[in-house]
Amino acid sequence: MLDLFRKKRREELIICFSKDKTSEMLMKNFFEAYADKIKSITNERDEEITSKTKKFFVQLKSDRKLIIQVNPSPKYILENEFLLELFIEKFKFKSCKELTENEILRYTRILIIVEALNREEKDNEVLRKKSIEFFDEFQKFLIAKRLKHYHYNKKYLIRDEEKWDFSDFIPPLSKKMFENFEMTKEDTARMERNIKLMKENKLPFCDKMEVNISEKDVKIRKKWEIIRKIAAITITRIAAQTYFEKKSEGEKNLAEIIGIFEEKYQFKEILTKREKEFLENRVENSELNVEFYFRLETAQVLLWVLSIGEMPDLNNFSDLTNIIEILENENLKSLARKCEIRSKNQILDTLDYLYRLNWANVEIKLEGYERIVNESILYFTRLGLEWVVQSDIPMEKIIIHT
């Protein structure tokens, strides 16, 4: 009888799984993704909607109705067929049907019932096609959020979901959640110059993207601090490479190199807690190894800031040997005398262009095309410049978004 009723009413079922997001976070994502398409949201008792609400009745501006159930029972999930199974993160299984009831309980689940809008959708596969198209957009939205792509589909996205109450996400979205700031005339000019450059290079661009950081908020770091950071990054790269190679003489040689660099640059004064533990504990940590190995691009761009090196080639990794040669033939004082920090405008122009290039790189990947540049190199290059212009923020706390 239930199957007959569903067939007569014509609906499709979508199930969404997450292992990292709470139901509150997942519903926030859903409301944000479709904020411009949602007409109203109610619950069963027509009471105030909160993060504890378990069932939502959503009416879209197209008049289509959705019923959203938070954490449906594992038994219901195993007994029903779904048009789509959306997995927010990577899972080892391909379908929730491979799981037991107890295994399903480990995940956050969101059930979405999509009802037919008209007679045409009841009689053929139109509802299925439209449902797939609709939720494909949700998948792209979630990828954009994971990649911190905050100017997705010509819209500003919320940067810090945890900072805001659930009620702020009920459409229309609260304007206070969007981090807009006033740009100076030079910020606006910089934005226009780089958009023009993106057009000339025939790259995707978003004309709504303000500058990532206003010149009025910029605090350029001191020369000696940048030099010591280059030394620290180089040492952690050498350490990461040593741990990767696992050669018997590697750690002994590493200790000697650390001693030489410390004598020349006193780089330990600028080590972060993570860097210090990485160098001192000699504990194998694959995640840190990878991070510190590829962070050499940050050292390369810092050399560019000091006018003694080229900008990283965004499609080819920097040469460790070249950076070591610069450092081993100098010390803190001699290198400081030879170098000159580039102008604030030059640094900000480059940072803003890389910000837009990062956006373009993510945008074309979301559309299914090949990358423009190597994303890892671009990330660490931006990280170096972001660190240079924000002297009050440690490198590890800088958030790179697009």
Q: What can you see in these coordinates?
A:
The chain is an alpha+beta fold. It is 48% helix and 10% strand. The protein is built from 16 helices and 8 strands. A 6-stranded mixed beta sheet has the order 2-3-4-6-1-5. It has a two-stranded antiparallel ribbon with strand order 7-8. The longest helix is centred in the middle third of the chain and has 23 residues, at 223-245. It is elongated and about 80 Å long.
* Strand and helix order: HEHEEEHEHEHHEEHHHHHHHHHH
The dominant shape is elongated
Number of strands: 8
Strand order of the largest sheet: 2-3-4-6-1-5
Radius of gyration, whole Å: 26 Å
Question: How far is it from the N-terminal to the C-terminal residue, by CA?
Answer: 50 Å
Residue runs with pLDDT of under 50 for 5 or more positions = 1-6
Q: What is the count of DSSP helices, taking H or I runs of 4+ residues?
A: 16
Class by alpha and beta content: alpha+beta
What share of the residues lie within helices?
A: 40-55%
Largest sheet: 6 strands, mixed
Give the averaged pLDDT, no decimals: 87
Strand composition percent: 5-15%
